[in-house]
Amino acid sequence: MKIRVWITLVITVLLVCLSSYGFCSGTDQLKRKDFPVLLMYHDIKEAEINGFDVSVKDFSQQMDWLAANNYKTLSMHEFVECLTQNTPFPKKSVLITFDDGYDGITRYAVPELRKRGMNATFFIIKDRIGTKLTDYSYLTEQQIKELSKDPLFSIQAHTLTHADLTKISAEQLQDEVAGSKKFFTELTGTQCETIAFPYGFYNKSVLNAVEKADYKASFAVSDLGLYDHEAKFSIPRIYMGSIMGKNNMKLFKRSVLNYKNIPKEAFVERFGPLQ
Ligand SMILES: [Zn+2]
Fold first, then answer.
1. What is the pTM of this model?
2. Ligand 1 centroid distance, CA of 231 (Å)
3. What was the pLDDT predicted at 27?
């Protein structure tokens, strides 16, 4: 009898925790369970240097697993269309994203994605374009333009300077958010509709600025709260990187399969020195 009481208690507590961790309480708004699986990569390298790198061997295995398990990769255009038309995302769909715009994208990720006909979105920092910082080179303007012409890929904003948006003045915030939208729209000739927050950091002012700049969605890392905005303005993503642990495929499968069951620990809030 005692065991039964304990089991009931544990199940009740778990259910309460899970339901209170939903995106929002509104009935007409999207909840986390409605979103596809969202993956956040940074650089793909021959061999990892920092925790946010993924080796090309691991990346290739991960993409093979998605393909073998019939996951559909969404283009950012498809993702935004589902959001704006309020239509359900395809079953077993995944949005693959890369932050910062390192040259491992064209060197390693793009060939692997093209081989499998997979979509991906690249969030680029305007001021880092064509620069190099220690072991990390950033894509050039020419490379970004070429990627933007391939229907598999989408170029989106990751601000002008990669500043922590929660720690800058209102004027700077406006520049970082609206300025990068304008820049990437002009660079690619395609409307830039989404933004990823540097370090995944945001607060109410940041979400206000994003809505004001007419972005359709914005991406975080961990769930830091809604701040009275719709869930689509602070979408968490799974941090892919060697920092997640050594057994790459086991962790990858667990993250993808459990995404809809809201494993808070999957949204590891970590960042390396160069992010
Ligand atoms: Zn970043």
1. 0.85
2. 21
3. 36
Nearest of 186, 240, 181 to residue 211 by alpha carbon = 181
Question: What type of residue sits at position 211?
Answer: E
Distance 245 CA to ligand 1 centre (A): 20
d(CA 81, CA 117): 20
Spacing, Cα 181 to ligand 1 middle (Å): 16
* Tokens at 133, concatenated: 């910082």
CA of 16 to the centre of ligand 1 (A): 33
Q: How far is the CA of 13 from the centre of ligand 1 (A)?
A: 36
Give me ligand 1 centre to Cα 264, in Å.
21
pLDDT in tens, 23-82: 333 334 566 667 899 999 999 999 988 888 999 999 999 999 999 999 999 999 999 999
Where do the structural domains in the chain lie, given as residue ranges? Answer: 33-266
pLDDT digits (tens, 9 = 90+) for 194-252: 999 999 999 999 999 999 999 999 999 888 888 999 989 999 888 888 766 666 788 78
Whole-angstrom Cα distance, residue 79 to residue 101? 20
Task: Give the count of beta carbons closer than 10 Å to the beta carbon of residue 185.
Answer: 15
Q: What fold, for 33-266? A: TIM Barrel (3.20.20)
Distance 8 CA to ligand 1 centre (A): 43
